[in-house]
Amino acid sequence: MQSKLQPNITAFLRYLRAERNCSPHTVAAYTKDLAKFTQFVGPDIAWKQIDHLLIRSYLSELFQNDLSKPSVARALASLRSIFKWLAREGVVKQNPAKLVSTPKLPKTLPRVPTIEEMNTVLDGDISEAAAFPERDRVILELLYGCGIRNSELVGIDLTDIHWSDETILVRGKGKKERLVPLMGSAESALHTYLQARAALLTKQKKSVDALLVNGRGTRLTDRSVRRIVKHIAISMGLPSDVHPHTLRHAFGTHMLEEGADLRSIQDLLGHERLSTTQRYTQLTITHVMQVYDKTHPKAK
Fold it and tell me: CB-hemisphere CA count at 13 Å for 11?
């Protein structure tokens, strides 16, 4: 027997894909979270019957099943999102999930490579670690040099490169577009890669819009980019937990360390809220304290 909630869940997931332009990973997470909630409330409960007490009971059960605080917080965020959409669609009058407090999460900051470590990778020879060295260097240069997301990177087409303005058009969350600078080593690496890309596609007799292609001449996936970045990072001496978003964090942190203001970094990263960008001040302060602790004579 199908749950009374399912038709609206299906429509909500369609909305996330078509209108919000959410990544497949995000949609899969919402699908999993909402399926768990549907199973908890049973097939006969309608959206209007769900209140904050029922949602609290659901979160309590998740905790009893040893789900971590971040996972429980994500489950609550999924419910807040779908109820917000349901209210806009006129299915419910209010969002009961807003009355439920988010589990207090431990403040953990991502480990960010130093400027010296990033220079070592970008200035080094990655040919032995890379299957397609020209392309893989562009991946590193654009992730770190432009601070773009993995999904934004793989979505770039050749027509998005504005050579005369030295910018690249990227499409972020919610289909929001922004221009990021294309200069210096990133621009140089891109010119070199495009020659190798043209030779590959000519050999395969293909014409592709995507900037980044694989050996078969088709658009590179974000999963492949994660694998490439991790493999090269480890080969060049960086920690094994480095992934594409690590390079985005490094971009924001290093920009701040070098004197860029938060508003400019916010625009470059495509953050909707300045509070998201302010996380980089925490990363920078942490780094400064570590340097002080290691080098200042009064700290020893």
Answer: 12
Query: Radius of gyration of the chain from Cα atoms?
Result: 23
- For residue 167, give the 3-state DSSP assignment: strand
Which among 149, 243, 254, 287 is annotated as catalytic? 149
DSSP letter assigned to residue 63: H
Q: Which of 171, 248, 249, 287 is catalytic?
A: 248
248 is catalytic: yes
251-296 pLDDT per residue, tens: 888 888 777 777 887 888 877 777 666 666 665 555 545 554 565 4
CA–CA separation, 156 and 1 (whole Å)? 43
In whole angstroms, give the CA distance from residue 86 to residue 54.
17
Question: Is-catalytic flag, 111?
Answer: no
The verdict on whether 271 is a catalytic residue reads yes
Catalytic option among 80, 226, 245, 279: 245
pLDDT in tens, 100-151: 988 876 655 567 888 888 888 888 888 888 889 999 999 999 999 888 999 9
**pTM score, whole prediction:** 0.63
173 is an active site residue: yes
